[in-house]
Amino acid sequence: MLRTAFAAFLASSALATLGLTSAVLAAPATVVPPIEFHERVLPNGLKVITSLDRTTPNVTVQVWYGVGAKNDPPGRSGFAHLFEHMMFKATRDMPPEYMDRLTEDVGGMNNAFTQDDTTAFYEVIPAADLQRLLWAEGERMSSLVVDKANFDSERQVVEEELRQRVLASPYGRLFYYVLPENSFAVHPYHRSAIGSIQDLDAASLDDVQTFHATYYRPDDATLVVVGNFDQAQLDGWIAHYLGVLKNPAAALPQVTAIEPPRTGPKSVTSYAPNVPLPAVALSWLAPKASDPDAPALQVLDAILTAGKSSRAYDSLVYEKQLAAQVLSEADLRAQLGVYYIGAIVAAGHTPDEAETALRAQVAALRDQPVSAQELDIAKTQLLTGEIRQRETIDGRANELGAAQVIEGSAERANTDITALAGVTAADVQRVAQKYLADDRRVVIRYLPDSMKPASAAEPAAAPPPAASRPYAGSVAALAPEGQRQAPPPIGVQPAAILPSPAERTLPNGLRVIVAKSTDLPLIAASLTFEAGAASDPPQLAGAANMTAALVTEGTATRSARDIARQSEALGANLAASSSWESSSVGFSVMPAKLPDALAIMADVAHQPAFAADELERARKEALDDLEVAYGDPGQVANFANAPVVYAGTSFAHAADGTPSSLKRLTRDDLARFHDRYWRPDNAILVLTGDLTPDEGFALAARAFGDWARPADPPPPPATGQASAAPRNVVIDLPGTGQAAVSLTKPAIARSDPRYYQGLVANAVLGGGYSARLNEEIRVKRGLSYGAGSSITARRTLGAFTAQSQTKNEAAPQVADLIRSSMAGLAAAPAAPEELAARKSSLVGDYGREIATAAGLANELNELALYGIDLGEIKSYTDRVEAVTPGQVQAFAQDLLKPEGASLIVVGDGKLFIDALKAKAPNLEVIPITQFDPDNATLKAAP
Fold first, then answer.
1. Angle between the 612-629 and 667-677 helix axes, to the nearest 10 degrees?
2. In the chain, which end has fewer C-beta atoms inside a 10 angstrom radius, N or C?
């Protein structure tokens, strides 16, 4: 979201965060528990919503302001988002980045997002730190330091974020600019929340100071607190830190623009660099989020594109194969909305074909009621998704805040789902006729610059930037260190309740692990086989990945459509995938649906058909996906990583395959891989959530007990020892808006006794916002939206990778900063306070991960896969805390020094290659048109 915002283009919409709120309700046997909450309004107008949860040791604090992209001043698009970044800088009593000291350094997290109608700030912290966070939010609201140094720094970061999310992404311009600009004619919703480089450059310090004084005030804010707290104590703290704040005398400005109705269809063609496959989108104006028609439009949206059984996916992607992807959204906001459906056109097809097919899908919804089965599947998917959303305290808080700010009442968190469950087939047809008329559509074709005719008109020149007005109000300044108010003391921390996994092995060798972790009606199931991409046969990169892709595409008893329809009718998000050392199939589902979902899982795992036509369809999809991925610098760098760092081992190829290797795969190759590795005595079944061990073991035996193990033993896991010389590689991707920079080298196996030392060392170097890499590259210099590192520890080997994306010209400088940060960690022990903060960050991240059924299943599965005692689920914190500064330094000296690391840079080479050559000897330059990660040279054979 828009501090890490816009992780996907959907984050720019109100509905992406809003979801559907909550209530007690039944639709297709789906019961969604309510969110119980209290609400009140303080005398200064601050709205307060609280919800108690004694099962967690944490609490989330969220502040939602009623200011978003629609409030950006004229000629200042992206301004609300820029100001969101400013809110993490200094206040009168907090120096810059102090919010990270109060959150990340104590095991919590913080973030924010900007949408069209709101800017929201949220933290999850140990309950003992609640008072300190309320103090900090009061500071940010009342005494933010809006000075030139902070303003200039964050503007650079926002511009790098824009380059990463918009200019470097193949379809970034489409979803951030072209779609909103052509969906609204008058309303400021037509402006992108992320803005433009020109408008960001035009912004002045006066603009920022005026913006803060105008909108960041108690009567424009909603405070949401969810988690473990004492209500009376909380009320006192809120009154003390936030209730005393005053509002400006001036009234809040309101957006009063009225979007005129469309009077006829419109077609737009837009061209951009780095568009691997054409795209088409159709948009219509839609109701606001609080409109009674909103639930029916959301159900319509699910019927069109939610899952493989959806109409548009089944027709355009599966049957006709004319789209590589389909997508849609009912983007419903506070004042009005937009509905769009689109497709990325598959190779060999045209935008006209995609447009015709999309229009036919919408027309069918207008012309005839949907079937009862389609209606039930859509509602079950939406309602089960709501249960997943409220697994976490921040998920529940998000729904309450969005309901209040976007729809006008937190009570909508208890009524929207009731309305959703009551949607009928007639309602779906009615809203399709009312809003999606053919004569009110806008059709957008998004094409590569290479298709642009010479006669095409150039885009109109942007108007000159609007002039800034001097700000005459008061300005806060950071108080001298000895005069700053200290934060409140830390309180008493509730104990965490950790799950107790139980395990049993069935007679056929299947290892079953069960952990009851919640009373929320949700269960996660994961069936994992100990073989992945490292077991791909020679010259058949992608075999494990394609095997996993095909198991859900038809069995001896179910067709691909049967599997999609039956699993989605249960609300199960059934999916299969592979990684380097494992392949898995999993889902999450309500307890009552678990037996049926496990039966489908057993069927797809045991007896996939690998039908020839399904293989050809999946191969075509995979090739289209690769074509798109090869237009993204970050993805290309990831593809190059394994062949470089694992050279000489069975890991030295692209796990997803390459265009050449995918074309070589046959049905027999996949069937052999499946028969060899997908077997019960080579598998681990993990069940977590709302069930007891005995219930889980009984269900596992019923679903998988008759799967006979083969007579021969399972094959041993893939092994290897990376020892290749480091390389310096540039992959030249002309026209991309940023360069991806990574340094990578071999690391440790999961069984290495230094594993926890490595975790802590990496946390200090690049494991979070406050880590050294992000501090050097983003915070100090504004060269990137973010920088970080990771240690991937597998059964026999691992890898370390540090990476960042930056404007192309800065790639050599960012590479130097990564190297110097790695060297610095090895040169001296980390300071005690730094080490303590990074340990807390690790422990907090881990606690939030295992707080969900799926997250806990992932952790248990990893322990089992790598032969680690399941008891480590409870000893993780102690093992992290036991790591010493000397051990961190020793680990860095042994494994994280820049010597021996390979450099991979993917970007527009003409902008940085000459400068990089002076810093990286023996630089290899590979044009993207010759890139082949299936070849040791990374270059396609002539």
1. 90
2. C
Angle CA 931–937–941, to nearest 5: 65
Helix (H) or strand (E) holding 756: helix 755-766
What is residue 19's DSSP assignment? T
Q: What is the DSSP letter of 591?
A: G
What tokens does 767 get?
Answer: 């494991």
Locate the DSSP E strands across 391-450: 442-448
Instruction: Show the DSSP H helices in 466-573 as ranges.
Output: 543-551, 560-569
pTM confidence score: 0.93
Count of CB atoms within 10 A of residue 204's CB? 17
Shortest CA distance to 852 belongs to which of 526, 594, 529?
Answer: 526
pLDDT of amino acid 642: 94
Q: How far apart are CA 622 and CA 308, in angstroms?
A: 16
* Nearest-angstrom CA–CA distance, 908 and 739: 7
* CATH 1.10.1740.110 for the 9-248 domain, yes or no: no
DSSP-derived pairing of the beta strands 683-689 and 523-529: antiparallel
CB count in 10 Å sphere of residue 544 = 31
CATH 3.30.830.10 fits 728-930, yes or no: yes
**pLDDT over 90 at 405, yes or no:** yes
pLDDT tens digits, one per residue of 699-733: 999 999 999 999 999 999 888 777 789 999 999 99
**513: nearest Cα among 869, 857, 873:** 857
Per-residue pLDDT, averaged over 761-765, amounts to 98
Within 10 Å of residue 403's Cβ, how many Cβ atoms?
Answer: 29
pLDDT exceeds cutoff 50 at 618: yes
Q: What amino acid occupies position 905?
A: V
Phi, psi for 931 (deg, rounded to 5): -65, 130
Q: 289-309: per-residue pLDDT in tens?
A: 999 999 999 999 999 999 999
Query: With contact defined as beta carbons under 8 Å apart, do 176 and 12 qualify?
Result: yes
- Bin 553: left if φ > 0, else alpha if -120 < ψ < 50, else beta: alpha
Q: Residue 27: what pLDDT?
A: 39
Are the folds of 9-248 and 502-704 the same? yes
> Among positive and negative, which fits the CA dihedral 837, 839, 841, 847?
negative
pLDDT in tens, 408-445: 999 999 899 999 999 999 999 999 999 999 999 999 99
Tokens of 83: 């100001």
Given a contact cutoff of 8 angstroms between Cβ atoms, the answer to whether 226 and 393 are in contact is: yes
Task: Give Rg (Cα) of the chain.
Answer: 27
- For 307, phi then psi, to 5°, come to 95, 170
User: Are the C-beta atoms of residues 739 and 806 closer than 8 Å to each other?
Assistant: yes
Domain coordinates in residue numbering, the chain: 9-248, 266-449, 502-704, 728-930
Please state whether beta strands 575-578 and 26-27 pair in parallel, antiparallel, or not at all (unpaired): unpaired
Please give the Cα distance from 211 to 108 (Å, whole number): 29
**The listed CATH number (3.40.630.30, 3.30.830.10, 1.25.40.10, 3.30.56.10) that belongs to domain 502-704:** 3.30.830.10
The whole-angstrom distance between residue 419's C-alpha and the CA centroid of its chain comes to 28
Rounded CA separation 95/779 (Å): 13
Sheet holding 683-689, edge to edge: 502-505, 511-516, 683-689, 523-529, 583-589, 575-578
107 φ/ψ sector (left φ>0, alpha ψ -120 to 50, else beta): left
The 10 Å Cβ neighbour count of residue 81 is 29
DSSP letter at 686 equals E
What span, in angstroms and rounded, lies between the C-alpha atoms of 511 and 507? 9
Q: Report how far residue 420's alpha carbon sits from residue 299's, in angstroms, rounded to the nearest whole number.
A: 8
Contact 426, 244 (CB under 8 A): no
Structure tokens at 667: 């049905």
Dmax (CA) for the chain in angstroms is: 83
pLDDT at 96: 92
518 pLDDT band, cuts 50/70/90, is confident
Tell me which CATH code domain 266-449 carries: 3.30.830.10
